[in-house]
Here is the input.
Amino acid sequence: MAPPPGPAPQRASRLVRLIRRPEFGSLVGCIVVYIFFAVVAGGHDFVSVQATAGWLNITAELGIIAVPLSLLMIAGEIDLSFGAVIGAAQVIVALGTGFYNAPIWAMIVLALAFGVLVGVVNGLVTVKTGLPSFIVTLGTWFVVAGLGLGLSLQLTGTSTLTLTSVPASAHDLFAWTVNGFHISILWWATITALASVVLLRTRFGNWTLATGGDLFAARAAGVPTGRVKVTLFIVTATAAALVGIIQTLEYNTGNATSGTEYVFYAIIAVIVGGVLLTGGYGSPLGVAIGAITYGFVSVGVYYTGWNTNYAQAFLGALLLLAVLANNYFRKLALAVR
Amino acid sequence: MPENPVMELHSVTKRFLGKTAVQDVSLKLFPGEVLCVLGPNGAGKSTLIKILSGVYKPTTGNVLVGGQPVTLNSPQEARALGISTVHQEVGTIPLMSVARNFFLGAEPTMRLGPFRLLDLKAADRIAVEELRKMGIQRVTDGRQTVGTLSGGERQALAIARAVYFGAKVLILDEPTSDLGVHEARVVLKLIKEVRGRDVAVILITHNAHQALSVGDRFAVLTHGILAAEFRRGEKTPEEVISLMAGGRAFEELEAAVEAEPARASDQNGDGQ
Here is the structure.
């Protein structure tokens, strides 16, 4: 309805601005969960350096994939296949170096290239056919997962492949650890910072928001929406390959079935992080905070001494709360002033 | 008319599978002039707009821009020639800010080392300035989301954007049909503002009173044929409504209105 004519309203106050930010809900949830475990599991050292390294390491590996995934979801698409890409990247690196004695850097490049390939297929099929990416990437998930496990079993007779020797250069870049803090934390922080700058301060970021916000309006304004989507499918799948490479070098083993659970956890982190399921709204920083919340829960439940299965129930409840809160915050953001 | 038309339709006919939607229509659009195309539903108004905006190509006849015959293969091609269309709802994205919407697809950037980043400060400032020039005072912060704007303000944003990016012809397709009385007034003021900037405006509407309040020239379309063309002041509102009613004599219409008072407000378009 028409608002009454009147004097121009004041610029929104600092507090209102903070509340309207897409990462606000995510931050509040994260703080509440931390305080909860600090109180309940404080006696069991949830706040210790060791536990902090624990949740940060878990957060980082999830965040490396959840943050790029959030950009894809802001553009209005989803990827389910990245879990299988994590496993496939592990197989590529471990099979190549541990079984065929290929140079590790070549296999790392090959694993990343495989990620790019899966992203290209996901992107082109989704954009060219107009099919929902949920279905397209469900298909590629199973294709990649089946091929990875099948090939690894056929070629080596086992699904778990071991690395023999890793050169220091590769180890330092992907598996360096100091005082229990893993280098993946740096990867995660860098990727989050990059994703934030790209989304909020580049033309590509503006196009990403527009593509998910209103596809037809974006096209009418001349935004190459197909190119935006394909690019983000590639970024997501390549980030998944990176997670696979990091995990292989960290544990010196590769397994085709690794990474499947990441599909669910990453989507939870994205939604808890404040991204709208329908696209067009969200922030990489919020999703990084969503990944931290996941880290708190998975480590926190362990430190309480409870049965760790409760972590899942906790995450499920968090997801539901987040969806409800997001819905509310979006209405707030759109309220006519 | 001393000036040359910025855009012209020259005996344009459009047929779909043997059915004629628009027949032998010639129109001229002049800079700084509002041409209102009036007509009942199914008169061929939307076909005409789609020919002007590059969606359809005419079956026969010519489209001229700046005196030169052109073939418009898409709305993008039309826009490149300075022909912009603003539809009722499409065009702005509610969850994005005013400034981001204003510059979507043509974002201003600045260099930072090897990177090109958005110049958000400039985008905010220009978007708010351009809206203010269009008479929208309520938007003072370019970071405000478009979802918080009223329908009239969103139209203003879409129109201001088109004009800022060099539209010479602005096609407005029923811009007030979804708006309340106050909001419709905002858009009508906006049309006068755009006309003052030497843009040729073509306003498609079925609301004769609104058309008469902003139009300089009028074209009435019925059954795909240009039934009448006249200038401001040459016809009374009653005559215009009569023409729009499909060329029926006014007396006949009046008799119908007498008989059915409920339909009267419907016919003169004030029921919006």
About this structure: Residues 225-251 of chain A form the longest helix (27 residues). Chain A has a mean pLDDT of 89. The two ends of chain A are 12 Å apart (CA to CA).
